[in-house]
């Protein structure tokens, strides 16, 4: 339409006739409100009442004096991605329902994932990787033949002793990361937990990208004679990754440099305030 009117000099009516639409349809502008306040309140209630569906949320909204048709609320509920996930037979941690926000500083969001490899003897071992999504720092790489949910919780506490607890953790829904130990850990530490959709590793892109680099640059380059040997080489690779590897996504900075710069900026902002 725009091309026909600007390039060919057709009138709006003629251009509409050529493409087969009514001029009133072309000129129409939606008068539907954006409902920003209602959306915000709906997200807040869904976060507070994680097992409430849209019907109960609708009742809570109406009790607050906000009159809204249930069909409209259901549409907003779906658009905001607040659908309640079904639980399995046993108790599992299901995590937050809120959409992921882009981290604006360190410790706002960590990502967790496992990578598997084998020793020269053929014995399998796993590596738990913990990444800060803002600075891209590898906060921990835990290598062992077995890593339970309780072990994951202990390692997270160990990181938090020197780093502080994150606002949000992102992971897949593996059994170790949806265990009762993790459920209790996140409740006791008041840390939100977001589980990506099954079969969608791209939703946890930062740690998946890190896993690819780890396998290409370290795991595929060495034959590990023992678990101790593997831990030593993996720790050396992690130190090099954090201290010496520039990232294009960080403007050419290394993860440690990105963290230090962000910390300095926050200190300066507090001083100015």
UniProtKB/TrEMBL annotation:
Gene3D superfamilies: Ribonuclease H-like superfamily/Ribonuclease H
A single MF term (Gene Ontology): nucleic acid binding
Residue ranges of domain Integrase catalytic in the record: 102-263
Protein name, entry field: Transposase
GO biological process: DNA integration
Short name of any one Pfam family annotated for the protein: HTH_21
PANTHER family (UniProt xref): BLR2054 PROTEIN, LOW CALCIUM RESPONSE LOCUS PROTEIN T
Organism this protein belongs to: Pararhodospirillum oryzae
InterPro entries in alphabetical order: HTH-like_dom, Integrase_cat-core, RNaseH-like_sf, RNaseH_sf, Transpos_IS3
């Amino acid at each position: 339409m725009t091309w026909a009117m600007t390039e060919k000099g057709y009138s709006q009516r003629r251009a509409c006739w050529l493409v087969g639409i009514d001029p009133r349809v072309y000129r129409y502008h939606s008068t539907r409100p954006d409902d920003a306040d209602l959306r915000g309140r709906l997200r807040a209630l869904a976060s507070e009442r994680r097992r409430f569906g849209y019907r109960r949320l609708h009742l809570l909204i109406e009790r607050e004096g906000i009159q809204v048709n249930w069909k409209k609320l259901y549409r907003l509920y779906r658009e905001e991605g607040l659908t309640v996930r079904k639980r399995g037979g046993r108790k599992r941690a299901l995590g937050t329902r809120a959409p992921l926000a882009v981290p604006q500083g360190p410790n706002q969001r960590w990502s967790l994932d496992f990578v598997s490899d084998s020793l020269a003897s053929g014995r399998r071992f796993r590596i738990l990787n913990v990444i800060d999504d803002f600075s891209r720092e590898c906060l921990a790489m835990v290598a062992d033949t077995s890593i339970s949910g309780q072990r994951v919780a202990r390692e997270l506490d160990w990181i938090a002793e020197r780093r502080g607890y994150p606002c949000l953790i992102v992971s897949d829904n593996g059994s170790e990361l949806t265990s009762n130990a993790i459920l209790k850990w996140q409740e006791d530490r008041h840390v939100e937990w977001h589980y990506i959709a099954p079969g969608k590793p791209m939703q946890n892109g930062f740690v998946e990208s890190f896993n690819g680099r780890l396998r290409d640059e370290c795991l595929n380059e060495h034959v590990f004679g023992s678990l101790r040997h593997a831990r030593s080489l993996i720790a050396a690779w992690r130190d090099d990754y954090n201290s010496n590897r520039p990232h294009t996504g960080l403007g050419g900075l290394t993860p440690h440099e990105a963290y230090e710069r962000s910390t300095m900026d926050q200190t300066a902002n507090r001083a100015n305030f």
